[in-house]
Structures are given as C-alpha cells and as structure tokens.
C-alpha cells in the first residue's frame, strides 16, 4: 500500500495565504513592479535568498520594486526555474539521491520522492522527513516487498537464474520492481519526468530506464550522472560529500568507509572505494547480512523446503518445528537462518552490460538456499531432455534480467516457457545449513521420475542388461568413424 503523500510545510499557506498567492503581480506605469509580500518571499525562498518562514507565510502587504532590484531578479529567477515541471525521483536516502534531490531543485524541478520498501533495513519515517527537509514536494513510501518476492524472486528461483555462474541477480531483480512504482507515481502526479541516482558507468541506469520506457513510452528520464553539468561538478564522492555538508544533507557515508551499499530483501551488494582494487580483501566489518562462518553456531539447522510448480510454499525447521508458508515470511525466515550460519557470501568480478568488468561483493542468504534446493528438486522431477532445453532458457533469462530487459517481449516469453516447465517440479528437499555451507540431505516427490526398482543394482526390474550392448554399439559407431578418418589423415601427413 502507498503511504499517504506528505507535503512540506515550508511556504504552505495558512488561512488566507492561498488567496494571497494568487494575487497577480503587475508592472506599474513608471516601470516598477508591484507584487505581494507573499510572492516576493516565496520567490526568494525558492532562490535560496530568504529563509524567514514567518515572513514567507505573510498574508498581506505589497512591495514596489525597481526593475534592477536584486530581490526582484531573485524572484524572477526562481519563478523561471519553476517552469521545468515535476520529476519523480527514485529516492533511497543515501548520499547520491539526497544530493540529487537538492540539485534537481536547484535546476528548477518540483521533486516528488519515491521510496520503495523492497526489504531493506531502513528507517522509512526518517527518510521521509529527510526528503521533505531537503525540499521534496511530496514523499511516497510504498511497501512492495511481497510483490518483489512473488513477482520477481520466485520466477528467478524457477529459472535457477544465475549470471556468469555465480551472481544470483539480487540488484537486477529489484530495479524493474522499483521502476513499476516509480512510473505509477509519475502517472498519478502527471509528471513528465522520472529521475534516478544510478551512475553513468553501471548497469542500473539501463535497468531503470528500459523498464520505465517499457511501462510508459512517453516518460522522460533525468539521469544526473550522465549530465556533464553534474558529473563535472562532482567528479568523486568527496565532492558529493562536500556538497552534502554545504547544504546540510545528513549522510551515513564517511571518507573512511566510502564503499557503496545497496540492500534489498534478496541481497546486499558492496562496491567502490577500496573494493575497486580487486586484490583487496573485504574488511571484516563490511558484511551486514551474514555472520562470519567461523563464528556461526556449532549446531546446524536442518530445513525441509516444500515446492509446488517450482515455487517454495513451505519451510519447516526440523529442530524446533518452526514453519513459514507465506511467501514473504518464508523468504525472511530463510534469510535469518542462512545469515546466522554465514551462507551466501560471494566476491566476484563480473562483466557489466555496458562493457567493463567490475568487482562486487554480495550477500544472498535465502537466495543461495533456494537456488540449491530448487536445483535439486528440479533434477529429481524433470525429464532429462526438457531440462536440457530449460537450462538454455535459464541462461538467456539470466542474461536478459542482468541487462535490464525484464519487461521485454523476449523475457516475458521466457518466463512463460520456464513457468510451463515447472509444472512437474513438486516435492520436498531436506537440507542442512552449517558454517557457511549447505548440504542436501534428501528429497521426495509424488511426481518423481526416479524409479528405485529400475535403478537398483540388486533388482533387474524392467531393464534387460543385455540391451545395453546394442545401445553402446550404436553410440560407438560415430566415434569409430571419426577416428578412422583421423587415422587416414595422420598417415598422409607422415608420408
């Protein structure tokens, strides 16, 4: 549900002020301008020249100013700056988006802040107050964590989505989810623009914007980190921090710990700062979602995870009997269990869509458990040849999601195909979580293709061992012909 939008009280009209705001300014015959005191102070306030809130909310009085008056020029500049319209900013409360919010106001935009709750540990009330204090016209806070799990994480689990063999796509899955809310608020507010704080070198700019253009083709995107007037002014994070200090923007980042963090329900990522040197080991205090495996409990947690159509529907802890069955509660519980055992840490160098390699450190506790559990139950229940085809689809799906094409027709098609492949993927996987590792202990399914009698070394069943001779002969024919030809070529080369 969307939280009711909040509006800043700065410059808000008290009884009678709204009428005063509408009172027109006009030019006198002698070339002087006459305008209401309210208009003057509101204009000066927007120009950053008047900070007296009591004066800004004055309801009476008109001033007569000469054309060259600095006050009039400031008011005119502020009035002209207001003409750019409304922009909905994907706001996080961090360094980049806080500075961008203030900068957008400097450029003349009315800023509406949109903050999506996708499971990150955040003081949302503090973020709301911060955005309003920085000048946001409205703040929308939307809890999309359940939608994130059901509409984005579950399809990735069904697909066994994995980019470049290791990355479980935590950030890539979150961006189209956030973009949905961003575009919806822009349409609700009648805004022509949306904005984000993604850098001009990364993947997120592509993910956000491709999603926004897919959902609302007429939307316009303001990407400050691709605008020379922004990135030349802020060539590094220290310049951003100086700007934040100048404008009274509170930020959690300090020069001593300048790495960037991005968290959601699926994972948390760390990059930049000292992590940009790929040989540098991550500092011990960096990790926040998982504990050090060396300090994890000395007793494992044994879990049973039940799947239907490839989607986890229930988890049971065999030790204490705890169960979770709703999508969000199940995922949060697995995050807690895996996190306390130090499961889900990776440190990788990956290939960004824009063409460069980057180093990222990720913690994906619940996602790691579900990836391995689903992989196991799928192999247990899915036909071999179908699974081969599905593996190819999963590879392409992972690439599309990583590159930002979630809302593309090809990705929608793949989700349909993968969903169809999951119909027989029903059953329960039992596993142990312990000291940074998870171990599959067993599995069962009413639709398993595993035939214990057929595969048994002690029972012949319906399988005739003698039939294997013909099978081997047929398959060896191709190999014999290949090596026969190779032998002829080798003889000719030796002559």
TrEMBL record:
Reactions the enzyme catalyzes: L-citrulline + L-aspartate + ATP = 2-(N(omega)-L-arginino)succinate + AMP + diphosphate + H(+)
Name of the protein: Argininosuccinate synthase
Annotated localization: Cytoplasm, Cytosol
Question: Which GO BP terms, alphabetically?
Answer: argininosuccinate metabolic process; L-arginine biosynthetic process; urea cycle
Q: Which NCBIfam families match?
A: argG (TIGR00032), PRK00509.1 (NF001770)
The UniProt keywords, alphabetically, are:
Amino-acid biosynthesis, Arginine biosynthesis, ATP-binding, Cytoplasm, Ligase, Nucleotide-binding, Phosphoprotein, Urea cycle
Matching PROSITE patterns, A to Z? ARGININOSUCCIN_SYN_1, ARGININOSUCCIN_SYN_2
One cellular-component annotation, GO:
cytosol
Query: What is this enzyme's EC?
Result: 6.3.4.5
Q: In which pathway does it act?
A: Nitrogen metabolism; urea cycle; (N(omega)-L-arginino)succinate from L-aspartate and L-citrulline: step 1/1; Amino-acid biosynthesis; L-arginine biosynthesis; L-arginine from L-ornithine and carbamoyl phosphate: step 2/3
Write the lineage as a comma-separated list: Eukaryota, Metazoa, Chordata, Craniata, Vertebrata
Q: What is its main location?
A: cytoplasm
Q: Where is this region: Disordered?
A: 1-23
């Amino acid at each position: 549900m969307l939280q009711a939008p909040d509006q800043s009280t700065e410059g808000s009209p008290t009884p009678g002020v709204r009428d005063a705001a509408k009172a027109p300014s006009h030019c006198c015959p002698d070339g002087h301008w006459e305008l209401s005191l309210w208009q003057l102070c509101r204009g000066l306030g927007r120009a950053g020249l008047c900070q007296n809130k009591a004066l800004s909310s004055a309801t009476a009085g008109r001033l007569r100013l000469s054309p060259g008056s600095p006050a009039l020029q400031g008011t005119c500049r502020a009035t002209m700056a207001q003409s750019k319209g409304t922009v909905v900013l994907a706001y996080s409360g961090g360094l980049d988006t806080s500075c961008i919010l203030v900068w957008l106001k400097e450029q003349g935009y009315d800023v509406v802040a949109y903050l999506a709750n996708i499971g990150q540990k955040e003081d949302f009330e503090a973020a709301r107050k911060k955005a309003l204090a920085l000048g946001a016209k409205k703040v929308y806070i939307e809890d999309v964590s359940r939608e994130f799990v059901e509409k984005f994480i579950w399809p990735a689990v069904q697909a066994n989505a994995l980019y470049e063999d290791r990355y479980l796509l935590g950030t890539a899955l979150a961006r189209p989810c956030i973009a949905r809310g961003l575009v919806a608020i822009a349409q609700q507010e009648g805004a022509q623009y949306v904005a984000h704080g993604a850098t001009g070198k990364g993947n997120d700019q592509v993910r956000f914007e491709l999603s926004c253009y897919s959902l609302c083709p007429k939307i316009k995107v303001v990407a400050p980190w691709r605008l020379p007037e922004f990135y030349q002014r802020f060539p590094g994070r220290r310049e951003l921090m100086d700007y934040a200090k100048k404008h009274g923007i509170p930020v959690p980042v300090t020069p001593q710990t300048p790495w960037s963090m991005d968290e959601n329900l699926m994972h948390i990522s760390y990059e930049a700062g000292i992590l940009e040197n790929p040989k540098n080991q991550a500092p011990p205090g960096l990790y926040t979602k998982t504990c050090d495996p060396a300090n994890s409990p000395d007793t494992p947690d044994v879990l049973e995870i039940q799947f239907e159509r490839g989607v986890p529907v229930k988890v049971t802890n065999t030790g204490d009997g705890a169960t979770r069955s709703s999508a969000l509660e199940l995922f949060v519980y697995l995050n807690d269990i895996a996190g306390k055992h130090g499961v889900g840490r990776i440190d990788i160098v990956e290939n960004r869509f824009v063409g460069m390699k980057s180093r990222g450190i990720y913690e994906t506790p619940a996602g790691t458990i579900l990836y391995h559990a689903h992989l196991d139950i799928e192999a247990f229940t899915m036909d071999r040849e179908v699974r081969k085809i599905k593996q190819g689809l999963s590879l392409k799906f992972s690439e599309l999601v990583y590159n930002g094409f979630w809302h593309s027709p090809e990705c929608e098609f793949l989700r349909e195909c993968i969903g169809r492949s999951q119909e027989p993927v029903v059953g329960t996987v039992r596993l142990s979580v312990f000291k940074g590792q998870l171990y599959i202990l067993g599995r069962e399914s009413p639709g398993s293709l595993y035939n214990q009698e057929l595969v048994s070394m002690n029972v012949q069943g319906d399988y005739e061992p003698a039939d294997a001779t013909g099978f081997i002969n047929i398959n060896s024919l191709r190999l014999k012909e290949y090596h026969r030809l190779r032998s002829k070529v080798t003889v000719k080369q030796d002559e």
